[in-house]
Design goal:
12 strands; ten-stranded mixed beta sheet; about 290 residues; about 20% helix; Alpha-Beta Plaits; two-stranded antiparallel ribbon
């Protein structure tokens, strides 16, 4: 074969975990400082040639990823474990490739996704987090789980989520299908708490909010979290959530909540692809 002829390429998928605290989001920027920039730089060093990746879902500044999936096209022939260990040798400690797999040419990390999953971990405590700083959201008022669950029901289904959409959102439509929201306490609490200011020395509790949908708008989950917390603390009634949704205006909703506790759990794909969907970090998150 002539040296001028193009080399045959193969498509490789990677599962990537990262702590987003030190990065200005996923998407590459001219100034650098993003997860994509760090990953592509490491891949280029490992492959000794330029490599670009396409991700399943872009995350914001400070948001974490557990099983972010990307794909890349390359003429290189490498074993799966070589892609993992070789790339990780050039990555910073807070980003790591978890798995690699060769996939069909028609596979697309974003377009092939059947759904996407996120979790938000929230600490309810009179005292701000220290060990968990950057990894959990925080609220110092007691939360009423039943009120939050009732408000969350309003959002499940296909709706115009303009009230929860960032002004920088690039989605062609604000209409999205939110399939499920689950809310549970991870510290043993089962009964709804009374709303009000917590006192130092009171028991804290971790809350886990899980979201699943086909796709999400920019800041959509963080804006929903702001509204759920407003209801949970008693600052707003349950019925207010329907008013916010109906308004189709960002001005109607609560302020955007902290990115610290938000985790992109990863996309869902056709099981026939046999891509890894369970990683150790899933069990590290509060259950």
């Amino acid at each position: 074969m002539s040296s001028h002829e193009p080399r045959a390429t193969r498509r490789v998928a990677l599962g990537v975990s990262y702590r987003g605290s030190a990065y200005t989001g996923w998407q590459s920027q001219a100034a650098g400082g993003t997860v994509q920039d760090a990953l592509e730089a490491a891949l280029c060093q490992f492959a000794t040639e330029p490599i670009k990746v396409v991700c399943a879902g872009r995350t914001d500044t400070g948001v974490h990823g557990i099983n972010q999936v990307v794909h890349l096209d390359t003429p290189l022939q490498r074993q799966a474990h070589s892609w993992v260990r070789g790339t990780n040798a050039y990555l910073p400690p807070d980003i790591a490739v978890q798995w690699a797999a060769e996939v069909p040419a028609h596979f697309h990390a974003r377009k092939s996704a059947l759904g996407r999953r996120y979790a938000y971990i929230l600490l309810e405590s009179p005292v701000r987090p220290a060990l968990e700083v950057g990894q959990v959201g925080w609220v110092f008022r007691a939360l009423d789980v039943q009120a939050m669950r009732e408000a969350a029901k309003v959002l499940v289904g296909e709706h115009d989520f303009s009230s929860f959409r960032s002004s920088q959102c690039q989605s062609p439509t604000p209409v999205k299908a939110l399939r499920e929201i689950t809310i549970r306490a991870c510290g043993g609490r089962t009964a709804p708490a009374r709303t009000g200011l917590l006192q130092p020395g009171a028991d804290g509790v971790y809350w886990r909010f899980d979201f699943e949908g086909q796709a999400f708008l920019h800041h959509m989950i963080r804006n929903i979290m702001g509204c759920l917390i407003a209801v949970g603390t008693g600052a707003r009634p349950v019925a207010w959530m329907q008013e916010v949704l109906n308004a189709r205006s960002r001005d109607a909703a609560a302020p955007t909540f902290s990115p610290a506790g938000l985790y992109f759990l990863g996309p869902r794909y056709d099981p026939e692809l046999q891509l890894p969907a369970d990683l150790p970090a899933f069990h590290w998150l509060p259950q």
